[in-house]
Specification:
heterodimer; A: alpha/beta; FAD/NAD(P)-binding domain; Arc Repressor Mutant, subunit A; 5 domains; five-stranded parallel beta sheet; 33% helix; disordered N terminus; B: mainly beta; Rieske Iron-sulfur Protein; four-stranded antiparallel beta sheet; 1 helix; 5% helix; globular; binds siroheme; binds flavin-adenine dinucleotide; binds iron/sulfur cluster; binds FE2/S2 (inorganic) cluster; nitrate assimilation (chain B); Rieske_2Fe-2S (chain B)
């Protein structure tokens, strides 16, 4: 055996604890050895570092091969909602930066309290000044025949998840024994992964320790509706199979075939090590209020401990324990007083919350609310004017509030009548969720998974974390199961004083501002360039990303027509090359054909280009023009020169801009035509072409309500009728087909053109980048658009004027300048010069 | 040990952009210039479906592929985030105002 400690050998083993402490604290840092690299062990070290980083030298032993990860998130990993990397709490760098010696895959097998050493499985032996045992729990395996067969899996660590995923990859049937929190999360994950799942539960209702019968029943029905089989009151007799699991036999004789059995019936504190070391152990390792065991040099924390007769199986108590422990280790001695816990089930779409005691009984009063149509069940148990328990199903928004009332033992007699309606009602009648959040006290726990209070979240927002991601990164609130995301968003809104609808969707990860904020600020502060916007609005990246750069480029272009210089490097390739990139890296070229009209000269020029540049294909598009495929990047300028020579300009088939104006034949030829739809289409295209937009924009003009140009699925559609022109907006073909909303009817062609210009400008100025007119109108409402375009005549006129002004700068053919040789380098290889040898 | 090839000056490459180099018998190489005037060279093929990376948007020390928007780290050629894959990189350096590209003999091995 060797000493891996690095500590100078001591002269004589210290017999007396007091002596050792004095000697060591004078000579060197004390050495804290932690057994268990799990949630409690690492959190204890984090708390300690936060209080006095230099005080202890830390070594952590972990039985698992991983860095510290968020065990509760194994469920989302199993369900495929997260990856392992996303649930890592502390990376290797964290250990390194804090000088922590992490030993993985090497469980501690013995503690010698006299010698003050621990010995790991590998033989590694380390001396400690203080020892912290944080070994967590072991899954309980019911002692039935077959329990050791390959294919019987517990649900505790990443290794178990890997085993389940392996099995799920092969498909087939799974049995989960245990209908508690863990079992149901396992069942959910496995069924999402494609297995047919049966849950076997001994008790008559699911999660009976957390839910009452009514909620348990609702939960069971919901799970069955999702295709799981739930057997309650079912007792396992045997797991059978030849050399591996083949199924489960119940005591009543039923057999359920399965290729894996997940055993999730409960946990037992992992106390073997402590017991062998002679520490006092009851159900768990016995600790006092400072998490000190029966040996003053040995502490214990987490699920492995018993405090005041209680053992815990949830994370919230760990956070409290770790705070008291770190206080104790740094001579502050605050003391742990036990925890009240609450439970949430992490199954997407099933909202279940429970807290406290809901068994009822003498002096207890139940307040129940059911809303069958919404599938909501709420029950709050009140005793002596205090909340003692709560069960919520289907709507758990008020869970934290009830839990807070319960923990504080607040007198609820005043709000008794509204209690069940939730906080918003009970605290003043306004059903304003923000007011409800504002009313929460600072020490109310917002994030149960990471033990973060409202005060801490607000502090980190005030310190500059002004997006959800930033809050997650700084104080970890909402970084785990995510059920408090709404609360954190509300706190962001309250603290930053911004109006947030469904949570602030920031423009991208580089900023905490939304699209609308950025646009407003650009105009308000008169910003003139992308770097200026990034600087002024505290971008978190040096030069943005492929989401924000094109958006900012557009916003600036729209705000400063004729003044802003377009940033080519902030445009997607198609807009930079003025052609559409194809999957083989060549380009397609679409010249404009006004209103779908063409003539021999244009057709001849296109035919020549096709032959001259060996274009493998030419095709009539859905936008009533021709598309030439397979042009090489190098040949683009020459192709454009040839097309320009025949009078053709770019069709912007690549742009967030006006695409096509489709027309039908109209009154000039068609026997039903009421107006000259073709002519109006050409005029409309001449007016709108070249304009940059938040997204692509399509127009069509049909000559009569038969609507052959499909005007009612266009961004702006005109349907001619005898008495004039019906104007339609917000249509979309594509992925989500949306028919237009009727805007209004006008009498003359000129009015149709004017309204079209005004509408286009409103869209350009107010929609978010990459938001087409259809989703934009769904968001703002067609009434709003009518008010701005139809009712407000002066406003319409101003919009139209702004559109035409901006068009005066944008109707230059982008091809012409390239054909004339500008930006030629974009199309050419760099030429290797001389060879310099080294 | 390397042959260095002079491919021009920094100003030949657009800021936050790229140009390509075609060497006899080699795959096309994309040479990037980042916002902080560093230069990187990669085979001009996205690890996903061979999109021409030279045509992507350059931000920080990464480029977003023009075809399906994967993010590729310029220094390592690795796809970022959820996506997995790697494009071979070629050594490149700036010396006396010139950009020197290592002769990519290694490419035959890597490609
Ligand atoms: C060429 C063309 C297909 C054809 O051969 O007919 C076409 C080709 C493409 N369409 Fe389209 N769309 C074409 C007409 C349409 C139409 C029909 C129309 O305009 O009447 C639609 C449905 C109408 C609509 O937009 O509402 C259409 C709905 C889409 C969509 C879905 C848009 C949506 O809002 O859901 C996309 C994807 C996108 O833009 O994000 C798309 C995207 C594309 C892209 C740009 C895909 C891409 O990103 O590379 C294709 C480019 C191929 C290329 O390199 O040329 N294309 N695309 C048509 C060109 C019309 C033109 O002359 O400019
Ligand atoms: C799938 C799942 C979902 C859960 N969901 C929730 C939830 O939604 N909400 C909630 O509050 N709680 C949840 N929990 C419970 C929560 O994860 C535990 O309460 C918490 O992890 C306990 O922390 P701990 O540090 O005490 O134990 P652990 O996190 O288990 O850490 C103990 C560590 O010690 C290691 N170890 C054991 N013995 C030794 C040894 N001799 N030497 C070295 N290392 C050793 C173990 O390998 C382990 O890594 C969930 C648990 C699981 C498994
Ligand atoms: S329908 Fe799909 S495949 Fe066809 S052109 Fe449009 S985007 Fe391409
Ligand atoms: S080819 Fe690059 S992302 Fe698909």
């Amino acid at each position: 055996m060797e000493f891996q400690d690095g500590i100078e050998p001591q002269h004589a083993p210290a017999a007396d604890y007091e002596d050792t402490l004095i000697v060591s604290s004078q000579d060197r840092q004390e050495h804290l050895v932690v057994v268990g690299n799990g949630m409690a062990g690492c959190r204890a070290v984090e708390e300690l570092l936060a209080r006095d980083a230099g005080r202890y030298r830390v070594t952590i032993f972990g039985a698992e091969p991983h860095v510290n990860y968020n065990r509760i998130m194994l469920s989302p990993v199993l369900a495929g909602e997260k990856t392992f990397d996303e649930i890592v709490i502390n990376s290797r760098e964290w250990y390194d930066e804090n000088g922590i010696d992490l030993v993985t895959s090497d469980p501690v097998v013995a503690v010698d309290r006299a010698e003050k050493t621990v010995t790991a499985q590998s033989g590694r032996k380390v001396r400690y000044d203080r020892l912290l045992i944080a070994t967590g729990s072991d899954p309980f395996i019911i002692p039935v025949p077959g329990k050791d067969l390959p294919g019987v899996i517990s649900f505790r660590g990443m290794k178990d998840v890997d085993l389940m995923l392996d099995a799920a990859g092969k498909g087939g049937d799974a049995v989960v024994i245990g209908g508690g929190l863990l079992g149901l999360e396992a069942a959910h994950g496995l069924s999402l992964r494609g297995m047919k799942v049966t849950v076997i539960h001994l008790m008559p209702t699911l999660m009976e320790r957390q839910l009452d019968e009514a909620a348990g029943w609702l939960l069971k029905s919901a799970l069955e509706a999702r295709g799981q089989t739930i057997l309650t009151g079912a007792d396992t007799a045997e797991i059978y199979g030849q050399g591996k699991v083949e199924g489960v036999r119940l005591k009543d004789g039923r057999e359920i075939p399965a290729s894996i059995v997940v055993m999730a019936v409960g946990i037992r504190p992992a106390t073997a090590l402590a017991r062998a070391a002679g520490l006092e152990v009851g159900r768990g390792i016995k600790v006092d209020d400072h998490m000190v065991t029966s040996d003053p040099a040995v502490l214990a924390v987490g699920e492995c401990v018993e405090h005041d007769g209680n053992v815990y199986g949830l994370v919230a108590p760990l956070w409290d324990m770790c705070r008291s422990l770190a206080d104790g280790l740094t001579d502050r001695h605050s003391g742990y007083r036990g925890s009240v816990t609450s439970t949430k089930l992490k199954v997407a779409g099933l909202d279940v919350f429970s807290a406290g005691d809901f068994s009822g009984g003498e002096g207890c009063e139940d307040i129940v609310l059911r809303d069958a149509s919404r599938g909501v069940y709420k029950r709050v148990v009140v005793k002596d004017d205090k909340v003692v328990g709560a069960v919520l199903y289907g709507d758990i928004a008020d869970g934290n509030w009830y839990f807070d009332l319960l923990k504080k033992g607040e007198d609820v007699s005043e709000i008794r009548d509204y209690l069940i309606l939730g906080q918003a009602f009970a605290s003043g009648g306004t059903a304003d969720p923000l007011a409800a959040v504002a009313a929460l006290p600072d020490d109310a726990e917002v994030c149960g998974c990471n033990g973060v209070t409202k005060g801490q979240v607000v502090a980190s927002i005030s310190d500059g974390a002004c997006s959800l991601d930033a809050v997650r990164a700084t104080c970890k609130a909402s970084a785990s199961c995510g059920s408090c995301t709404g609360l954190v968003e509300s706190l962001l809104a309250l603290t930053l004083g911004e109006e947030v609808k469904s949570g602030p969707k920031t423009l991208c990860k580089c900023t905490s501002f939304t699209h609308d904020d950025v646009r407003r600020e650009i105009v308000a502060q008169g910003m003139k360039s992308i770097p200026e916007v990034m600087q002024t609005l505290h971008w978190s990246t040096p030069d943005g990303c492929s989401s924000c750069r094109p958006a900012l480029n557009y916003y600036l272009l729209c705000a400063l027509p004729g003044e802003y210089e377009d940033d080519q490097q902030s445009r997607f390739v198609n807009e930079r090359m003025h052609a559409n990139i194809q999957k083989d890296g060549t380009y397609s070229v679409v010249p404009r054909m006004w209103g779908g009209l063409t003539n021999p000269r244009e057709l001849r020029a296109i035919a020549d280009v096709v032959e001259k540049y060996d274009a493998p294909m030419v095709k009539v598009t859905g936008g009533q023009r021709l598309d030439i495929f397979g042009i090489k990047k190098e040949d683009l300028p020459a192709v454009w020169a040839d097309l320009n020579a025949a009078g053709m300009v770019s069709g912007h088939a690549y742009g967030k801009s006006l695409r096509t104006v489709k027309t039908c034949v109209g009154s000039e030829w068609c026997r039903f035509g009421t107006q000259d739809s073709t002519g109006l289409g050409v005029k409309t295209e001449r007016m709108t072409w070249g304009s940059w937009m938040p997204h692509k924009f399509k127009i069509a003009v049909s000559g009569c309500p038969r609507n052959c140009a499909e005007a009612t699925i266009k961004d702006f559609g005109i349907v001619c009728v005898d008495s004039g022109y019906e104007l339609h907006v917000g249509g979309n073909g594509g992925i989500h087909v949306r028919a237009t909303d009727f805007l209004c009817k006008v009498a003359t062609e000129q009015e149709a053109l004017d309204y079209c210009a005004a509408f286009t400008q409103l869209y350009r100025e107010e929609a978010r980048y990459l938001e087409r007119t259809a989703p934009w109108i769904e968001r703002v409402g067609v009434e709003y658009v009518k008010q701005r375009i139809v009712e407000d005549e002066t406003g319409r006129e101003a919009l139209r004027a702004r559109f035409l002004y901006s068009q005066s700068f944008s109707q230059e053919d982008p091809w012409a300048e390239r054909a004339a040789g500008r930006k030629a380098e974009l199309h050419q290889h760099l030429e290797p010069l001389a060879i310099a040898a080294e | 040990m390397n042959d260095w090839i002079d491919i021009g000056t920094l100003s030949d490459i657009p800021l936050r952009g790229a140009r390509t180099v075609q060497l006899e018998g080699e795959k096309e190489i994309a040479v990037f210039r980042t916002g902080d005037d560093r230069v990187f060279a990669l085979v001009n093929e996205c690890p996903h479906k061979k999109g021409p990376l030279s045509q992507g948007i350059v931000h920080g020390h990464a480029v977003s592929c023009p075809l399906h928007n994967w993010n590729i780290a310029l220094a390592s050629g690795e796809a970022q985030g959820e996506d997995k894959g790697c494009t071979p990189t070629i050594a490149v350096k700036q010396e006396g105002g010139r950009i020197l590209l290592a002769h990519p003999q290694s490419l035959q091995v890597a490609a």
